[in-house]
Amino acid sequence: MSLPQQDEHHGAGGEHEDATGLRERKKQATREALVQAGVELFVERGYDETTLADIAEAAGVSPRTIFAYFPSKEDILFTTIDRMCGSLASALDERPAGVDALSALREFILATAPQKTELDCRLAQSITADATLASHRRARIGQMQEVLATAIAADLGAGSEDRRPQIAAASLTAAFELLELDTHPGEWAPPTRDEIATAIDPVLSFVRAGLGAERLFLTARAGRCLLAPGLLSPRPIEQLEQLVRGELDLLVLPLACAVLARDQA
């Protein structure tokens, strides 16, 4: 009994798809092997002491194969950051309607942070100990800052001249970088969701409050009257403007100073 012609075509197409899928899986496996070998050697020997030939040997491939996957040794070192940047961009782009950038960022961190290992922690400490690598890491993290700033600007309806999204995004990336480096390998343990939330929620609330204070300030400047809690009549615009500007300075300026301190470190 012969199969219908349609099924034969489907079967041929299925074989082609299986072959393509197999090739892609092999490529992905090779990429992962190179990253794993590289990270382990960077932590064990040091970044400068590790050569591409060392990584290729540990991964079981030829040195030339590396360049089919990574332009340089540094791209292997910062693979995790580059991947996280791409994943964060997708998470922000695909967030449901009504979910702001800060809420989407929180869920992203809660979902990805528990995946970090002690090896990741040791690598981060190694990078921090090298001034050049630490500077290059900040440049890579800057890509993540731009992704956040774009999403925050969309939430605020901010134009290109508006500095609020950049200040907020820079504050977030600086704060989370410090939180990541606050754990040392000797005391490392897989973080729980609650522990991560406890660490990041104050940061998110701080930035959200700063953005909220700025929105109040702009509203006051636009000439709208806002009712103060417990009062039956609006406060004068001048008084409200002074109040909100004071709250904004207390919230945003320390964040900006933290960013400057990080960049100058």
Q: Helix share of residues?
A: over 70%
**Uncertain parts:** 217-264
Radius of gyration: 24 Å
Distance between the termini: 76 Å
β-strand percent reads under 5%
- The structure class reads mainly alpha
Please write the string of helix (H) and strand (E) elements. HHHHHHHHHHH
Name the assembly state.
single chain
* Total helical segments: 11
Number of strands: 0
Mean pLDDT: 77
Shape: globular
| Total domain modules | 2
Biggest β-sheet strands, sense, barrel = none
Tell me what you see in this structure:
This protein has 265 residues and is an all-alpha fold. The protein has two domains: 1-77, Orthogonal Bundle (Arc Repressor Mutant, subunit A); 78-264. 74% of the residues lie in helices and 0% in strands. It has eleven helices and no strands. Helix 6 runs antiparallel to helix 10 and helix 8 packs across helix 9 (164-180). The chain is globular, with a radius of gyration of 24 Å. The N and C termini lie far apart (76 Å).
